[in-house]
Structure formats: C-alpha cells, structure tokens
Design a protein that fits this description.
Blueprint (H helix, E strand, L loop, with lengths): L1 E3 L5 H20 L3 H24 L1 E3 L5 H10 L3 H20 L6 H19 L9
Antiparallel strand pairs: 1-2
Helix pairs in contact: 1-2, 1-5, 2-3, 2-4, 2-5, 4-5
C-alpha cells in the first residue's frame, strides 16, 4: 500500500531523517537507549520515504516493510544492503515502542550505524543541492 506525495516534498522527509538521526545520537550519549533506537528507526523510515517520494511521488503506507517493494525498482545494486539494514531496524521497532523490555547500548549503536548507512546511500540518489 502507498500514498501519493508531491515529489517536491522529498526534502522534508530527508530533513526529518537527519533530525531523527541527530536525536538518536544525543539519546545514545544520554544513555536513553530505547529513545536512541526509536529515533534511528524513524530516521531510516524517513530516509527511505524521501527516496520513494523523490523518485516515484509516493511513500509506503501501513506496514513499514511495504517500502521495500517500492524500493526494488529504484535502488538497483544497493537494494540488498538496504533491505538487510532496514529489516534489522524494523525487527526492533515493536520491542522498543511497545514491549516492556529495554534496548541495550549495543542495540542503540547498531541502530544508529544502520540508519546512517541507509541515509548515506539514499543521499547518493538524491540531488546534492537539496540535502539538509
């Protein structure tokens, strides 16, 4: 399932991705590991939305995993790596947002690393002058 979005708004999703990643890093430094993981996940979601909005004028709606089917046609050789990184992040989403268990420092560090990797790959496919 997807929703149409004005293609010019891709930069807003990119900005949200950058902001969420910065907050994830701040939360890690403050030892707020669940907040760090949650923000890293939202960074990745927004980064991928920026790419699909820019390329196709739509973003995934409903299940966050839906974005992967949209991305296949856009990413080419980068698809497998992004699928792996994003899948690992999404696996943690339910746990950090709804379960009574806490994320570890290692979870936070890995989540930030995965989100950063996704964001960097996405930026290579977007216009350089519009990156926040």
């Amino acid at each position: 399932m997807s929703r149409k979005v004005n293609q010019k708004l891709y930069v807003n999703y990119l900005t949200k991705a950058e902001q969420s990643l910065r907050i994830a890093e701040l939360a890690l430094n403050a030892k707020a590991f669940d907040a760090s993981v949650g923000n890293a996940i939202h960074s990745a979601i927004n980064a991928l939305d920026s790419l699909t909005v820019f390329s196709l004028g739509k973003r995934a709606a409903g299940n966050h995993g839906n974005v992967l089917s949209i991305l296949k046609s856009i990413l080419g050789k980068d698809y497998n790596d992004i699928e792996k990184q994003f899948g690992a992040l999404i696996e943690l989403k339910n746990s950090v947002e709804y379960e009574p268990y806490f994320a570890s420092e290692k979870d936070a560090q890995l989540s930030i690393s995965r989100a950063r990797r996704i964001l960097e790959k996405v930026k290579t496919k977007l216009p350089k002058n519009n990156n926040p």
